[in-house]
Amino acid sequence: MNKGKGVFYASGANAWDGHKYVCMDDMEDGRPCLVYTFGISGDISFEESMAARGCDVYAHDHTVPRFPPTRYKNIHLVKLGIGGTDTDQVKTLSSLLAHNGHTDSVVHYLKVY
Q: 12 near 25, Cβ under 8 Å?
C-alpha cells in the first residue's frame, strides 16, 4: 500500500487534499496501468504520482477554469465530468471509455472526488 502526495490547504477547511492510499499489490513495474479520475480542482498530485509510476491517467473535471500544469505526457486532462447521462459537460463512464478506446481495457484505479 502506498500513499500519494498531497497539498495542505490552510483555508477555512484546514485540510489535506491529494493524499490517497492505494493498494499496489497488482501493480508491477513495466505492466500497463490505466487510471481514471474525476474531480481534480487545482491539485493533480495524485494523478502525477500515478503517472510517475508509468500509468496512463485520464483526469476529468468540468468545473475548473483551467488545469494546473503537469510535466507528464501520460496525463490527459479532460474538461468533462461524470454523470448518469451524456450532456455537454458530463458523460457516462461507458461513453468516456468508448471515446478513449478503453471499452475492453481494465481500469486499474478509479478516483472520484
A: no
Cα 59–chain centre separation: 4
User: Would you say 75 and 68 are in contact if contact means Cβ atoms under 8 Å apart?
Assistant: no
How is the chain split among helix, strand and coil, in percent rounded to 5? 15, 30, 60
Grid cell in block for residue 40: 481534480
Three cell numbers written together for 110: 478509479
Residue 57: all three cell numbers together: 491517467
For 33-86, what is each residue's pLDDT tens digit?
Answer: 999 999 988 889 889 988 988 899 999 999 999 998 889 999 999 999 999 999
Is the entire prediction scored with pTM above 0.85? no
